[in-house]
Write the C-alpha cells for this entry.
Amino acid sequence: MTHAADRQMRSENRLVIAHIYTGTTAFVLGALFGLLQVFSRADAIQTPPWFDYYRILTTHGVLMALVFTTFFITGLSTFVTYRSIPREKRGVALGWLGWWVMLIGTLMAAFEILAGNATVLYTFYAPLKASPWFYIGAALLIVGTWIVAVDIFRNVLWWRREHRGERIPLPAFCSATTFLMWWIATLGVATEVLGFLVPWAFGWTPGINVMISRLLFWYFGHPLVYFWIMGAYIAWYNIVPTYYKGKLFSDSLTRLTFIMLLLLSTPVGIHHEFLEPGIADRWKMLHTVLTYGVAIPSFLTAFAIFASFELAAIKQGKKGFWATALSLPWDNPAFAATGYAMLLFILGGFGGLVNASYNMDLLVHNTIWIVGHFHVTVGGPAALTFLGTAYWMIPKLTGRQLWSKSWALWQARLWFVGMLVMSMAMHLVGLMGEPRRTASVDYLGSNIAHTWLPYNLVAAAGGTILFISAMMFAVVAIGTLVVNRKTESMEAEFSEPSQVSGPTPSYLDRIFRWGVVALVLAVLAYAGPIAELIHNPGFLAPGMRTW
Amino acid sequence: MHIHRYERIWITIGVAMLLVFLGAIGFASVADNINPPSGMQAIDPTKVAETPPFDKPGLRQIGDHRYEAYYVAQVFQFTPNDLKVPVGSTVSFYVTSPDVVHGFFVPDTDINMMVVPGWVNTTTHTFTKRGTYLLICHEYCGIGHQNMFGKIEVY
C-alpha cells in the first residue's frame, strides 16, 4: 500500500473507530443499568429514590436500543461502504459532522435523563411531558444519522458515475438500502418530535393529540427494529462467509432481500398499537398481513445462510447436518458470536409472528413476554452480531490484534447463555401475566404475582451472566487498544458470490427508485388511519410530568 | 433472476405457513369474534370528571347477567378500584384517562387494552370462574405506576 493510500485509510478508520467506540461505551453503561433492573424486579435490591427504577429503565432503553445500536450501524455501514468503494481521496468531514451531531444529541438527551427531567422511557409516549431539551437531543441523534446516510449515498453515487453498467459493490448496496429505509422511517419520529413534542414541551401549544403522536412514533418504531436487523444482515451476508472461507449464496437474492426489507419495514407499525382506541380494526388487520410479509426476506436470509454453510462444508468434503455444523469455526469469536446470534433469531422471529398477530396480541401485549422478545431480537441477533463484527473490525481499524481471543470467545458464549436464560424466563412469565415496565410486581402479595417471583429470579441470573459478558467485551475492546500487538494486515475482505449465484439484474440496483416505491407503500398503509384521526381527532391532552 | 429449486420449495413452505397463521387469525376474528379493543368514542380529557357516565364511574346492570363498568384510570389509581360481579356475568368495560396513557390488563383473561387520554376504550368479557382477579395498569404512567392496580371479585 502506498503512503498516501495508507494515510487515507487511517483517516477513514479514525472516523469508524469514533462511531464503534461511542457505541461500545453506550453498551457497557447500558448493561450496568440492565443489571440494576433485573435485581430490582427480583426484589433483590431497592432502587434509591434519587435514582428510581424508571430512570434506570429509561437510561437502559435509550443507551441500548437507541444509542449503542445506532452508533454501531453508522460505524459498520460507513466502514463497509468505504472499504468496498475504495477512493484515493475521500473527504471524511461529512462523516465526522454526522458523528458530532449524533454525539451532541446523545449527550443532551442523556443529561436530561440522568437529571431526572425525562423519565419517559425510550418510547417517550406523550402526554408524559419531558424537558424539551430531551426531545431536541433525540432529534439531533437522528439528524446526525441522516448526515451519515448522505455520506454513504454520495459514495454510492460516485461509484455509479465512475462504473457505469456495473453493479454497486454489495456491502455498499446493503448499507445504502439500510439507510434509505432509515430515512423514510425516521421521517415519522422527526415529524412527531419537531412538529408536536418540542413546541408542546416548550409550552407553545396547549396540548397534544396523543393518538397522532403515537401513530407517528410507531411509523418509526417498527422500522427501527428492522434497522437493527438490516445492520446485522449487512454482516451476515457480506462478512460472515469469509470467517469460514465460504461464499455468499446469491448476490441477486441478497439484493432482493434488502429491497424487500426497504419496502416492507415501514408499513407495519400499527402492530404495536393493536390495543389502542381510535384506530379501526381493518387497519390493524392490514398491518398484521404486511408484517407477515416482512417475514419473507428473513426466510430468504435463513436459506441463504444455511446454504452458504453447506456449500462451504461440501467443499471440505463434509456432508450432513452435524458435519456441516461442526465444520464451522466456532473457536473464532467473530463467528461464534454471530452464529449464536443467528440461533437466537430463530426464537425471536417466531415470537415476532405471535406479537404481530392481530388478536393473539391480547395475550402478550405489554407483558414481559414482549421484553423477552426484543431481547432475543435486538439484544441477541443484532447486539451479538455487532459484538462479533467488532471482533472482526477492530483489528482492521486499529492495526492491533484482538486482546484476547479466548476472552472474546467466552464473552460470546456467556451472552448467548445469559440471553437464553433471561429471555426464556421473561417469555414464560409474560404468558402468566407479568406486566413489563413496572418497578415492583408484588401487588400487595397478590396470589398471581406470587407465582411470578421464581421466574424473575431466573431472569436475574440470566441478567447477571449478561452483565459479566458485557464487562468482558469492555475489557477486550479497551485491552486491544492498551496492549499494542500489531496485526499483519488491515485489509477487509468481503464475501464473493458462489457459482450458484447467477448474474444480478440491473433493476435490483436502482435503490433510489425502490426508495420511492417504499415511501408510496408507507403512505398507503398510513393514509387511512391518519385521515380517520384527522377527521375524528379526539381532543388535545395537556400532558404532565408524573415522576 | 436465478432462484435455486430448493429455495423455491423453502419459500413456498414459508409462505404457506404464513397463510395458515393468517387464516387462523382471521377465523378467530370472524367465527369466534376475538378482536382487539378499538374504541372510537372521543372524550375531552380535561373534562372527564364532569362528562357522564365518567362523572360517576362504577358498575351498571343493564340486563340479566349483563353489566357495563365505567372506569377512570388516572395517576395512580383506578376508579372504581374494586369491582364485584356475580359469576357468569358479561361485563362491557369502558375506560378513559384524564391525564397520561395507562394500561388496563387483567391477567388470566383476555381483558387487555390501552387507555389513551382523549378516547374511551372498550372491551367485553364474560367471567365464567369465581375468584379475585388482579387489574393492572401495564403502561408506564409515572413514579407511582407500580401502585396502580385494583381487583375484580367474581362471586
